[in-house]
Amino acid sequence: MKTLFDFISKLLAALSHAAGDSADKEKPAPAPDVPTVDTVTGWSGEPPYRYLDVSRWQGKIKMEGWAQVKAAGYKGVMLRAVGSRNCVPYIDPTFEDNYSNAKAAGLDVGVYYYTNASCEKLADRELAVLRKALVGKEMTMPVAVDLESPSLAGMPYGDLSNLAAYHLEQLEKMGFFAQLYTYTSYATVHLDMARLAGRWDVWLADYTGKAPKVSFKYNAHQHTSKGRVPGISGNVDLNVTEINYPRIIRKKGLTRLREGA
Question: Taking a C-beta distance cutoff of 8 angstroms, is the pair 212, 221 a contact?
């Protein structure tokens, strides 16, 4: 996997952890003057699959904005479907419009949801809101649980990993391609990644500008939270992978919520 991400050039942003749902705590700072799609350089061979992820903190993105995203070379987007405010899950207010417009622009779409759940009962409450958001939707990218909450970091090591596994198992039961999103230091300190990454797909945030130095497998890399993308105002997270998620997901029939799930 190291060779996959060695092409990432020196990035200006070198943060200690992923932004995740910190946007629910404070609004992002203005975006710096950095390149847009060309923040990924030095790739030899076929272009990588480049995509972004957005939430309500990117504001209202119009249809023409999504068309610009597509024209700039991005192939997909991970939309925040569910956030958490005071440990109460809610559907992101931009989710419905972003889903419709991104799909209409020809982008592959997946979702993520931020978890603050400290037990399976609370996880079920989050998953119920996610289920409601995804009724009738087609996912051609993963459905990811965003696990980075500081409030969960104090849980016993094994308990938090068990809870992560529970989320991922429930996503699979719902009929989707389950994925774990976290950042490097959170993963190495708080999670049993040998177990989790050995079973599920991992989307790893690491803003050092280099290939993440980890002992576990990851397939997607969020390499900056301060990208600039045509059609979107302000900061935006940028990601890269060489995995063809849409082809895998369609082939396995993991595009829609299972009835009764």
Answer: yes
Give the list of residues 6+ apart from residue 38 with CB closer than 8 angstroms, or none.
Answer: none
Which residue is listed with tokens 């890269």?
240
CA angle, residues 156, 161, 167, in degrees to nearest 5: 130
| Cα–Cα distance list, 134 to 28, 34, 91, 102, 255 (Å) | 27, 34, 10, 15, 10
Return d(Cα 63, Cα 219) in angstroms, integer: 29
Cα distances (Å, whole numbers) of residue 33 to 30, 36, 58, 191, 192: 10, 9, 17, 35, 37
Q: What is the pLDDT along the chain (261 residues), one digit of tens a residue?
A: 444 444 343 332 333 333 444 434 333 333 333 333 334 433 344 567 999 999 999 999 999 999 999 999 999 999 999 999 888 999 999 999 999 999 999 999 999 999 999 999 999 999 999 999 999 999 999 999 999 999 999 898 899 999 999 999 999 999 999 999 999 999 999 999 999 999 999 999 999 888 888 999 999 999 999 999 999 999 999 999 989 999 999 999 999 999 776
Can you tell me the distance from the alpha carbon of 219 to that of 196, in angstroms, rounded to the nearest whole number? 13
Tell me the whole-structure pTM to 2 decimals: 0.84
Instruction: Kindly state the tokens that stand for 78.
Output: 């991970």
